[in-house]
Predict the structure of tRNA (Guanine(37)-N1)-methyltransferase Trm5b.
Amino acid sequence: MTVKQRLWCVQVPKQSGEPVRILLVGMGAFERDAAVQRDDDYLYFPVKYEIEIADQFPDVRLLQRDFECVEKQTFKDILGFTPSYDMIGDIAIIDADDPDAEMIADAILLMHRHIKTVLGSLSPVQGEFRIRDLRVIAGEPKTETVHKEYGCQYEIDLARVYFTQRLATERKRIADQVRGGDVVVDMFAGAGPFSILAAKSASEVVAIDKNPVATLYLERNTRLNRISNMRIICSDAADVAHDHNLAHIADHVIMNLPHSADEFLDEALTILKPGGIIHYYDIREEDDLFDGAEATITDAASARDMTVRVLDRRIVRSYAPHQYNVVLDVEVSGG
């Protein structure tokens, strides 16, 4: 069903149409639910908001016109409520135990045209490889996808490798701290979302993971993203800190293993350069978000005659009722 709606649009001479269309799509401004209009001389590209691109294309003009638009449905229109779900690449993940799981899956496929598969999660993230049991509820029978994030692509099998899109902003925050010449060690790298983004700026990244499937996908993703400054180690981080020439090489150590990162602090301190930064992730109760984690790091450093300075501490996301995934950026000196 279509409705007539007045929208902003970009008037473009026909000969300039394709480069302008590509720019609008790249900006995320192109309104896909409205049909492009044309006359003898011009194309009229509908846009989501008032924009200014005349500095790049002097022959374009912004104006308003009436367009035929696809009438948008909402989840409330379809289901009567808004469901909770994650989207990773062209796969959506919902709770398999939800009594409305099949209805929710059908609604997601209807609402999101790029989603090809809806998986149901049968368990929480668990086990030494931090994966969860999944079943296909609707769409194509697959668990593998390619997820795009901040200009990088990650090929992943969600049934065999841990991945969450909910840390995208956090991964970018860490990558923005990395400078040319820095060495980054990612102690629990998975398929590489922290490592690959950091490698865009770092001199070298050492990516460690003990899941052989994860390191297989990490190798694929380095090729997919044309990364050539990464060393990949398939092993438990506790076993390699002293055995792979890693002692005191890192300007940044990423410890994204929030349930048990504290067990690897001695290895992280071995890997870190004096004055380097540990990015330490933890799951904390709401009545002690940061102090307990800071004390754990301080105690581990003190045992090695090191001192710590907390540069930043923040809540990354809500994890469970009264529990939060937090991060501390800690500079370590001495030793």
The chain has nine helices and 17 strands. The longest strand covers residues 306-320. The radius of gyration is 24 Å. The chain has three domains: 2-70, 75-142, 164-334.
